[in-house]
Amino acid sequence: MKKMYTLPELENMLTCRGEEENRLYSEAKRVKNENIGNNVYLRGLIEISNICTKDCYYCGIRKSNTETARYTLSDNEIIEAADFAYTHHFGSIVLQGGERSDKEFVNRITRLLREIKKNSNNELGITLSLGEQTEDTYKRWKDAGAHRYLLRIETSNPELYAKIHPNNPLHSHSTRLKCLESLQHCGYQTGTGVMIGLPFQTITDLANDLLFLQSMDIDMVGMGPYLEHHATPLYEYRHLLLPLQERLRLSIHMVAALRLLMPDINIAATTALQAIDPAGREKALEIGANVVMPNITPTTNRTLYKLYENKPGTHEGAAESMRKLEESIFKSGCKVAYGTWGDSRHFQSR
Ligand code: 5AD
Question: What is the pLDDT of residue 318?
Fold first, then answer.
């Protein structure tokens, strides 16, 4: 299933225009439909807390941002949100939150996983997106019922990684890589991804990111445009950024190119695409993505989970966003597959 492309070929895919761009899109669409069909899988996203021990220069919920009120959902709120996903036949949920690794937190997640699995008769699939942890923690959470894990590498270039993170051992590129390997070792379906259009990032960096995803034999990818947040250190470099529409276009090209490289993985149409253009996610689904993560965090806390500004859907109720979502998936020529975990074919065929 592995298709090889050279770095110059990938760079060209990311920058092509006109006829070539149309060919890239139609080829990616064909490869997707041939390999995995037009099903779109839902993961109900529950943003459990915006408390974070990390201080990433790009992120609105970084530890040093004192402008953000901090929240943590109660056990009940998390369990009720999971129940909403279960009764609405989403098939799976994602528990995402700021990074913490204290004992109390690790134990709490373990307990919640068991409870959610029990409440759903083991039917609900659970993905975690809770940052860097020890292999022992990853194992415990897997034993308690999680089976997929998302940890973005953010960029595969260690030098660029160093520019967008503080220079301390908490923010090391090699630790992040080791975590991804631990996750694969523990048997998780492992997802990673990058931000697209970061200051200092080149087209070659992004082409290398694509080769990195392929060489890691990753099962799922979530990647989207970098969006500046005023209360972060990287905001200072906003004059270096591509215009928003160009960042969106580059992100769509990344999705299409990745689909050509990895025909049977799960690729998410991310919220950050939608933040630039209301139809951004649709476009990604049309040309290569097959996963959407509707936000099912209780609305009172949703406005506080701001990784970047103008985050869409922060004021809507669940029913309203579901209706909109169904409509946009339909418009992109795909259909929602309810009541299934929607594992990546790539993982299944291992
Ligand atoms: N713009 C876009 N994506 C961001 N993330 C964090 N901050 C931003 C931002 N300003 C992404 C990171 C992280 C994920 C949870 O959100 O890639 O891994």
Answer: 65
Residue 2 has a pLDDT of: 60
Question: Which of 9, 28, 25 minimizes the C-alpha distance to 265?
Answer: 28
pTM to 2 decimals? 0.96
Residue 152 CA, ligand 1 centroid: distance in Å: 9
Q: What is the pLDDT of residues 75-96, one digit of tens each?
A: 999 999 999 999 999 999 999 9
Tell how far the Cα of 195 is from the centroid of ligand 1, in angstroms: 7
- Looking at the structure of the chain, the number of domains it has is 1
Which residue's alpha carbon is at the smallest distance from atom 13 of ligand 1?
A: 152
- The ligand 1 atom at the shortest distance from the C-alpha of residue 228 is 10
End-to-end CA distance of the chain: 11
Find out whether the beta carbon of 165 lies less than 6 Å from any atom of ligand 1. Answer: no
Cα–Cα nearest to 278, from 310, 302, 254, 304: 310
Identify the domain containing residue 246 by its residue range: 7-348
The residue-averaged pLDDT of 22-38 equals 97
Taking CA atoms only, the protein residue closest to ligand 1 atom 6 is 59
Q: Is the pLDDT of residue 317 over 70?
A: no
CATH number of the domain where residue 334 is located: 3.20.20.70
Q: Is residue 2 part of a domain?
A: no
In a domain, 316, yes or no: yes
3-state secondary structure of 157: coil
Report yes or no on 1 lying in a domain: no
